[in-house]
Amino acid sequence: MCHLLGLTMTVPTSDEENTQLFTELLPVVETCSSSIWKVWLGISDLAEEGVWMHLEQQKQIEYENFKPPYPFGGLKLNCGSMLGDGFWGDENCSERKCYSCTQRPSDYLNLRGLCFVDEHQTRFYLEGRRDERPLFRGFYDHIIFWEKESGKWFIQNVHTNSTLVWFEVLNNHDYPLGLREWTTQDQLCGVQADTKVSLSLSACSSSQFMCSSGQCIAMDRRCNLRHDCIDGSDEDGCEVVSPGTGYRRHLPPMDPSGLVLTITPTILINRFVDIDDISMTVALQLRIILEWNDGRINFRHLRSEKKTILTEKEMGRIWVPQYQLADVEGGRPEVLERVVSVSGASNPVFPDHNSVIMDWDYPGFNNSLILDVQHLARFACAFELFSYPFDIQRCSFQLRLSTAYDSNVQLSSTNRTVLYNGSRELVMYSVHNIMIRASGSREHLVVEFELHRRQGMILLSTFLPSMLLLLVSWATLFVKLDALNVRAVMSLTTLLVLYTLATNASRLLPATATVKLVDIWFLFIIVLLFFNIMIHIFVTEGELRSLFRIASKPCRVVKVEPLSLDVRISKTILFLRVYRVLLMPAIVLLFNIVFWVKCLLVL
To answer: Which residues form the C-type lectin domain (predicted)?
Structure first.
């Protein structure tokens, strides 16, 4: 009760003060309690047994007036009280008895809800008693008092001796503290007589929140999802949005300067979900964040250290920008989460001294609204595959404001941001150069990014095996000419394996008419393997045996054919030797130089 009155529990600091307190309590001491412990004092040894602490100052008291055998001590007797003879004792804190409060000159209560011209008129202080209840006197010409006969509390103008308002209590121990429904005696502040009006009487300042009971708490504990008021009223009426009179949610707000509303966009790409070479699409998980100000709205219960999130109901009461993501496969992206919040808590407006609502108002011009939408979207991207697997894909998507705004809303051209929070190194690609490209319109923006294909796995799975097959085919040129079966089987096998490898590689890419570098690579090796097979066909062991049989006939008949045949044999073998040692390596070397220089230029 002392706290509700804006006072502190009394703790005597000397024999003189203790005697003064006991003297003032003598008229009522017998009505306070039937036990020997009469009045609570503001001390306790709950924190440490035997060490009596001042409850308000939280420090050990220097003056004590316990009468032996007090204090008894123990786990239950932790609160100090004054006995009927003026000495002190310890008692169970749950017992009911009177209490004494100390009033300093600076202590006063505020009466809110009437139509006082000056704030000082709302201030009341405790002045004595009337009908065994406190009497509150205003700084000017009003008093609040209890009338035992009628069981009512009254607010009266002592200058005109007229009653302004009254309220009837349900029990005799009730006080006019906190938020109460009073009844007007006559016409008052534009309200007819015999009408219920809400008035509050508390010690709360304009920087505090008053609970319905009259308890005061810090404003930052209001609507924090915790019951800080004893009656829980700090979690009532926690709506954040307070639209002004005549607010129309279908109309976009104006800029503080009266110009076209400018929205600040921020795009956060959280991760690349999938990159599909076949369908030429890129799936992204991204957040679209749009920030703007709406001066038609006031906010309440904001937090300076974090954003204040609006409920679905509050989101439906205000204007929120509409936008589209262009180049989305299927037309519409999937919405994973949609949140509207208020950033910060700037320039609070304190309540009027007559207002019973103690909440602060935050102007919409000074506190930004933020729309945060998390999407899962698959965007189309025109892949350029000529340089595969050394390709760099340049993809983009567009953010467009609704055309219904008719140029009354625009995106900021200077304060716009795109960020990537994921890993730069993906499974098959690496991400580079994410940026917002300048566009000719202020109503949309284009986000661009590059995907550089990672060649390591492709080189190991495509180029290296094909080179090994080429080496195998080249090695068949060194097999003995009489081992035709070996040469034929090895040559055909390498060709078939290479063809299978090329087919599998092409299946990983979309079917396009574009000739790719990898196609040129496989085509070159296939042609070379085919040429090797042709060489094996025309340079055969059978042909050489027939030539040797002709050359070994008797010399009865002199002919020139054997000599010409020997010459032919020498030329065939010579070509084979030159091809396998010089010509084929030179062709392969030259092609590789040209091919890899082209790849480097692409990179």
So the answer is: 1-102
